[in-house]
Task: inverse folding
């Protein structure tokens, strides 16, 4: 062969100046390289040599091979759009709070209580029972004593005990961990003479009993949904790094013990992350039966402690699913561009795209027609709203707020202009939290179903009834035409509304829905004689302006949105007078209502969900009357997944991404 | 020349200082900060946000922060990343830079050679039908809306034809059991590329003086074959053998981004070469060369193209400067996690230490490249050298 080539080459060398021999030679070398690189034999040799010559670390092939006989097969592939900022759980909850970090974070932490989805039912996790009542110590402190299940273990074999929780609590305080750690383990402390509600002590009564003493009588939001869900981590592993905040946050989280069936396998920064099934895990199996407002957990896999508990109302229709994992590997692949990610999804390269905002409507429609693609649409656990600044005129006038609420035909914009891409929302509670949703009352109920002319007329009536005056109240020509706006409008005390009032809303590039809605609402306010202009504004600019105490009076109206938590206690944060933004809280409108504050106090002490719902609905009634927020709409979360994967449920408030990060422990993948 | 370099270096230092100050002020002019998202968590205790700002020094007045930053910068302390704490900006850059350099070094070399070659042909075949078509194609490439074009190429080659991957720089499943991470493979690939380029460049220099066109070409081609054979032995022996399948995976993923960026980038070089060479072809010495009966190829390659190379090389050096910031779109679309993505992400997240470090890197890179361009200009063009000396 070589002799032939040399002879051929010599022959060709006679053709100096011709390109032919060079092309043939180039092709020959290229063919040689292709054969060398592409042959099966070569790859096998490489693989063998790689295994022999490299000491396989814990995260490489060897453990996966060991796991194979007892572990499930298959790979569940998910796309993510941003690089997780850390694999260290301490760091994640400190200041690196980011959804992408959350999705990829392994199960390094556990808590006493948990939440079952899709019904958002409060359940136990490490606690042996759902302790809902505390003991009044008589000195202004209250102690919750929680027994923990004996027998659960971390992946390194350590038992999960009360000492882990106590150690976590102490480290949070000693090292001064920030942000979410402060939220969960909020300390009882004296700030400027006023004692803040928080934890007085957190101690282990024995290895499997933890006693938590608070300086206030906590209700659901503080106890069940915050402190009892505070994460705690394995003491043995993490204590070696707990010398300073920096050291702890810099520690390797990829090697941390977990309380789940998956451990980190390959961490390729900027490219992909994988979890692999831990063959020694006790975290598998178990049946969960879901009712509308209740959950039954039956867990007896022969390795972990047997659990059989029911929570909430376990009557009515139900369905049961058995927990996995059903896959041996979970892969998170990073895509810098959403279009590329969905193209890869369409191509079958990933099974599911983790996207907290969901797929855009047009892409969703397009993907729904692609063979092998399944779709699901769920309401988001959140709301978009417009806030009035009740500290400054005219937002300080209730009749003004009511008249704006009345003339704002949200349904018209959502259905006729935005083609039904969002769902109208009147109250503070997402529609899916059926029990919590209060009946719509007040001006929103009065103006529901009215046409444009009637709404305008009703709004003018509201203003007139409250003592507003105008030189000329204008008129409405009827139909879809604009009203002839009132002129010389003055408030009940003769104040003239300012000119050039701005309604800050995100621009069309950021959120076309709010942007469109803001244009309509500004126009409706103009039709009532108020000089309001919708101003598309950067998200950060709005946040900076409305959440900064120094500028709390420098705006009239803005539009933003809230993502809500599993327990809907947000009206307290948004409207209690002690949370006024001017004082550093989240009550941006500066709403101040004594009756509402009294209900907030009751709500904070509510021990049962039923009590909390009843109080919440009374609070809502006040908000419907006072209108510090005009709640606008809820945007459904649209998601797609390949038909080779199946989830035990797909109807869940906030979607599969928002509630379970794609449910890697429950998903089944057909090869 | 020494005096000239010293003078330019001093100028560069002043420019860089101003660049640092203005960049810092601009970043701080963006509303909010890296921790503004904490404001959106109503469960956060009232003082928690302020404590975070205090810890990262964001509660200090702007000019105090600027002063501190400048002093620390020149001490080599770039601080910690706000968003990837406790990683430092240097750690993040050193993780991302090799990926960008690998991709864009190839892109620049390929697009420069393609552009220069096509530009030469265009000027030489002036008035022909092929010139019209190639010019039209080049103008299309030069003016096409890049994100659209890149996505279309992804769609065609990745989705419709399935020939090439849809973004990323590797197939994760091939790396599950990799005994090293991709940065090690990138480093090997970069070293390999540098060595190969140096050999080829050495071969070019060594054969420059050979008068016979065919001998010169044959020798250069022989060096190319030697590189191929050397590469074959390199990748099939020793430590490189283990890295080979991983390097091949990365190389396979590079094909589409290299192709797309080359298609867009070559046109600038091609059109510039065409214009310059057409000017050169009008020169008297070209006419003289023709009158002497020198072959057309020789006139084109040795007389015209070499002179036309001068502005093209300068333009090439300036193009290299834009590797980092110009890579933002490419890296975003092709999910190539390099410096461009890091820069974009740090700016969007207001991670000022990382954004400043990236921009400083770009700034230094730009200033040094400009200096090199000035020096090479005076080296390549004797008239400039004489003027600066005289």
Result:
């Amino acid at each position: 062969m070589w002799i032939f080539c040399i002879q051929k080459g010599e022959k060709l060398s006679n053709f100096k100046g011709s390109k032919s021999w060079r092309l043939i030679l180039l092709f020959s070398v290229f063919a040689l390289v292709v054969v060398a690189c592409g042959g099966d034999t070569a790859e096998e040799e490489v693989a063998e040599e790689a295994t022999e010559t490299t000491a396989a670390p814990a995260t490489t092939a060897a453990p996966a091979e060991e796991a194979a006989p007892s572990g499930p097969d298959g790979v569940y592939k998910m796309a993510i759009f941003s690089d997780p900022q850390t694999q260290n759980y301490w760091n994640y909850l400190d200041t690196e709070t980011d959804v992408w970090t959350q999705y990829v974070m392994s199960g390094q932490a556990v808590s006493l209580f948990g939440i079952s989805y899709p019904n958002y039912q409060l359940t136990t996790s490490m606690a042996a029972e759902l302790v809902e009542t505390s003991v009044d110590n008589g000195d202004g402190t209250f102690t919750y004593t929680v027994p923990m299940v004996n027998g659960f273990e971390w992946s390194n074999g350590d038992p999960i005990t009360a000492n882990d929780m106590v150690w976590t609590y102490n480290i949070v305080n000693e090292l001064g961990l920030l942000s979410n750690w402060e939220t969960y383990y909020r300390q009882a402390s004296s700030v400027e003479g006023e004692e803040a509600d928080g934890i007085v002590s957190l101690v282990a009564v024995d290895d499997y009993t933890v006693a938590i003493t608070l300086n206030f009588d906590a209700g659901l939001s503080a106890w069940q949904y915050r402190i009892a869900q505070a994460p705690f981590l394995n003491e043995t592993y993490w204590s070696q790094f707990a010398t300073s905040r920096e050291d702890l946050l810099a520690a390797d989280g990829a090697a941390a013990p977990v309380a789940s069936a998956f451990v980190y396998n390959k961490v390729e920064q900027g490219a992909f992350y994988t979890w692999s099934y831990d063959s020694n895990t006790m975290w598998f199996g178990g049946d969960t039966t879901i009712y509308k407002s209740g959950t039954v957990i039956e867990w007896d896999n022969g390795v972990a402690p047997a659990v059989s508990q029911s929570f909430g109302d376990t009557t009515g229709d139900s369905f049961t699913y058995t927990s996995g994992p059903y896959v041996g590997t979970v892969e998170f692949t990073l895509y810098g561009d959403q279009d590329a990610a969905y193209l890869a999804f369409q191509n079958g390269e990933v099974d599911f795209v983790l996207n907290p905002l969901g797929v855009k409507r047009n892409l969703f429609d397009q993907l729904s027609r692609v063979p092998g693609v399944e779709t699901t649409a769920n309401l988001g656990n959140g709301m978009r709203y417009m806030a009035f600044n009740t500290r400054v005129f005219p937002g300080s006038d209730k009749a003004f707020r009511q008249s704006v609420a009345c003339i704002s035909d949200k349904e018209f914009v959502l259905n006729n202009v935005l083609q039904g891409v969002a769902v109208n929302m009147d109250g503070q509670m997402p529609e899916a939290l059926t029990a919590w949703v209060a009946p719509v009352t007040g001006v929103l109920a009065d103006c529901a179903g009215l046409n444009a002319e009637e709404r305008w007329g009703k709004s003018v009536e509201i203003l007139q009834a409250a003592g507003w005056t105008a030189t000329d109240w204008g008129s409405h020509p009827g139909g879809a035409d604009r009203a002839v706006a009132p002129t010389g409008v003055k408030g009940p005390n003769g104040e003239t509304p300012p000119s050039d009032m701005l309604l800050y809303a995100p621009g069309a590039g950021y959120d076309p829905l709010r942007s469109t809605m803001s244009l309509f609402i500004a126009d409706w306010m103009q039709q009532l004689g108020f000089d309001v202009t919708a101003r598309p504004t950067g998200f950060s600019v709005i946040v900076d302006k409305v959440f900064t105490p120094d500028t709390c009076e420098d705006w009239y109206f803005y539009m933003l949105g809230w993502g809500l938590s599993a327990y809907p206690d947000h009206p307290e944060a948004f409207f209690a007078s002690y949370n006024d933004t001017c004082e550093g809280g989240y009550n941006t409108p500066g709403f101040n209502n004594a009756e509402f504050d009294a209900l907030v106090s009751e709500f904070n002490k509510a021990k049962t969900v039923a009590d909390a719902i009843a109080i919440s609905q009374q609070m809502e009634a006040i908000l419907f009357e006072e209108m510090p927020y005009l709640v606008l709409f809820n945007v459904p979360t649209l998601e797609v997944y390949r038909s080779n994967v199946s989830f035990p449920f797909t109807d869940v408030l906030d979607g599969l991404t928002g509630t379970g990060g794609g449910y890697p422990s429950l998903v089944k993948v057909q090869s | 020349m020494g005096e000239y370099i010293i003078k330019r270096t001093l100028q560069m230092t002043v420019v860089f200082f101003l660049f640092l100050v203005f960049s810092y002020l601009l970043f701080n002019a963006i509303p909010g900060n890296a921790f503004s998202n904490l404001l959106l968590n109503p469960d956060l205790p009232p003082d928690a946000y302020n404590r975070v700002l205090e810890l990262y020094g964001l509660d200090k007045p702007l000019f105090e922060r600027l002063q501190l930053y400048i002093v620390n910068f020149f001490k080599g302390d770039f601080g910690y990343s706000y968003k990837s704490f406790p990683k430092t900006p240097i750690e993040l850059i050193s993780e991302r830079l090799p990926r960008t350099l690998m991709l864009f070094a190839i892109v620049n070399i390929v697009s420069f050679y393609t552009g220069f070659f096509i530009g030469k042909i265009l000027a030489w075949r002036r008035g022909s039908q092929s010139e019209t078509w190639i010019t039209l194609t080049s103008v299309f490439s030069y003016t096409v809306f890049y994100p659209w074009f890149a996505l279309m190429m992804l769609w065609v080659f990745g989705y419709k034809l399935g020939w090439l991957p849809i973004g990323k720089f590797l197939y994760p499943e091939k790396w599950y059991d990799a005994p090293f991470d991709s940065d090690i493979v990138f480093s090997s690939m970069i070293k390999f590329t540098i060595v190969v380029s140096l050999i080829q460049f050495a071969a070019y220099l060594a054969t420059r003086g050979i008068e016979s066109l065919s001998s010169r070409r044959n020798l250069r081609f022989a060096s190319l074959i030697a590189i191929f054979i050397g590469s074959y032995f390199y990748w099939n022996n020793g430590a490189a053998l283990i890295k080979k399948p991983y390097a091949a995976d990365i190389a396979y993923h590079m094909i589409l981004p290299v192709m797309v960026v080359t298609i867009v980038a070559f046109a600038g070089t091609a059109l510039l070469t065409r214009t310059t060479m057409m000017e050169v072809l009008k020169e008297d010495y070209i006419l003289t060369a023709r009158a002497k009966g020198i072959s057309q190829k020789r006139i084109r390659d040795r007389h015209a193209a070499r002179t036309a190379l001068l502005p093209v090389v300068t333009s090439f050096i300036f193009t290299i400067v834009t590797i980092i910031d110009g890579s933002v779109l490419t890296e975003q679309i092709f999910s190539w996690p390099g410096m461009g993505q890091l820069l974009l992400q740090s700016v969007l997240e207001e991670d000022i230490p990382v954004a400043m470090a990236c921009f400083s890197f770009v700034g230094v890179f730009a200033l040094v490249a400009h200096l090199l361009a000035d020096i090479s200009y005076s080296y390549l063009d004797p008239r400039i050298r004489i003027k600066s000396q005289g």
User: Anything to note?
Assistant: Chain B touches chain A through 75 residues (CB under 8 Å). Chain B has two domains: 16-75, 89-380. Chain B has a mean pLDDT of 85.
